[in-house]
Amino acid sequence: MSATKIIHSIPSDPLTGAISVPVYQTSTFIQEAPGVNKGFDYARSNNPTRKVLEDVVAQLEGGDAGFAFGTGLAAIDAVLKLLSTGEEIIAVDDIYGGAYRLFTHVYEKLGIDIKYVDTTNAENVANAVSTKTKFIWIESPTNPTLKVSDIEAISKIAKSVGALLVVDNTFASPIAQQPISLGADIIVHSGTKYIGGHSDLVAGLVVTKTEELSEKIKFIQNASGGILGPWDCFLTIRGIETLDIRFRRQCENAQKVAEFLLKSEAVSEVYFPGLPTHKNHDIAKRQQNGLFGGIVSFSLKKDTVEAANAFVTGTECFKLAESLGGVKSLVCHPPQMTHASVPRARRLEAGIKDSLIRLSCGIENAEDLIQDLEQAFKKTEVSPATVAV
Ligand SMILES: *Cc1c(COP(=O)(O)O)cnc(C)c1O
């Protein structure tokens, strides 16, 4: 979807002509007679500000309908409620930690089976599916090593066993990748990240491919009630207005940062799908519209938690914080932050070394970001300059 189309998919207010979407801060709507209303009756079921966001997100992803939730995990939870006891999920092995926690500690207890496989090889998925499989659940690219899976190939496997393909599209954003056009059935987003884009809210989104799925998610959204409030819907809509320009700048910055890191003597591995050295570069190039995202991860030659700590507390532009996708650059140390609950042995298996650092590039000037990284490397005392002294 072009930047023009995105901006003009957001309607002005038909009642007043207000060019920006009004915040309908109301819990209920006056009825003319019982059941006779203007399409809205109670704000859990529907709200005009939320409706604009949901319609825009459906268009962004090329789906039948969109649904806004209070957080990304609430969106994921709503999708999981489509399952019944005894059914099975085949999930990407380095799934977002919060999704892993929800799968394991809430849904496994309710009799849902979950099998984790390396989905970067579609054959692993084909070997894992069974007649019980209801969902194949992938993220692409993943966090933090940015593994990319072939959505189209996996969607064919899902169809062959009558399962649905769910794609968490948070890292690619709808600018780089529209999974429904590649065969996915349901998209989830943490709207907290690129879509909101300003680190000022938490939000979750679901987009469905078919009317049948839309009706089911609509029912769950109203029945469980984990909706996004009107003010945060407004902020998310405002974020979407600049999504295209922000995301493209973040991708450019990340590419430059990744190329800088690749040359840096302090660095041992760089993970960025835009580098030809990345394992999944070819599929990323085909699938992601030439856009590789704003996240770059790397590990240090001096592979210790102490060196990583010196680095992440030494950056100035890159603020030390969880989350990603906002206009301000962020740095995080997954082993002590986002992935602290994953046992070290499992982390190492997934390529998350003790010194692994994740950068979320914002929209600052690339030169400033690179300069910031250069000065932070000096603080880790592993830069060539310091070693030479
Ligand atoms: C952050 C994130 C989520 C969870 O979203 P919240 O808004 O924090 O609840 C889910 N998936 C991915 C890939 C994420 O990065």
Give a short summary of the structure.
This protein has 15 helices and 12 strands. It has 389 residues and is of the alpha/beta class. It folds into 2 domains: 3-241, 3-Layer(aba) Sandwich (Aspartate Aminotransferase, domain 2); 244-379, Aspartate Aminotransferase, domain 1, CATH 3.90.1150.
Describe this entry's structure for a reader.
- Helix content is 38%, strand content 15%.
- With 389 residues, the chain is of the alpha/beta class.
- The chain folds into two domains: 3-241, 3-Layer(aba) Sandwich (Aspartate Aminotransferase, domain 2); 244-379, Aspartate Aminotransferase, domain 1 (Alpha-Beta Complex), CATH 3.90.1150.
- The chain has a seven-stranded mixed β-sheet with strand order 1-7-6-5-4-2-3, with helices on both faces. A five-stranded mixed β-sheet has the order 8-9-12-11-10.
- The longest helix has 21 residues, at 243-263.
- The protein is globular and about 75 Å long.
- The N and C termini lie far apart (53 Å).
- It binds pyridoxal-5'-phosphate.
- Residues 71-73, 96, 98-99, 139, 143, 168, 170-171, 190, 192-193, 202, 204 line the site of pyridoxal-5'-phosphate.
- Pyridoxal-5'-phosphate (PLP) binds next to helix 3 and helix 4.
Secondary-structure map:
Elements: H1 3-8, H2 48-61, E1 65-69, H3 72-80, E2 88-92, H4 97-107, E3 113-117, H5 122-128, E4 133-139, H6 151-160, E5 164-168, H7 173-176, E6 186-190, E7 204-208, H8 211-224, H9 230-241, H10 243-263, E8 267-271, H11 281-287, E9 295-300, H12 305-312, E10 319-320, E11 330-332, H13 344-349, E12 357-360, H14 366-380, H15 384-388
Parallel strand pairs: 2-3, 2-4, 4-5, 5-6, 10-11
Antiparallel strand pairs: 1-7, 6-7, 8-9, 9-12, 11-12
Helix pairs in contact: 2-9, 3-4, 12-14
Bound molecules: pyridoxal-5'-phosphate.
Residues 71-73, 96, 98-99, 139, 143, 168, 170-171, 190, 192-193, 202, 204 line the site of pyridoxal-5'-phosphate (PLP).
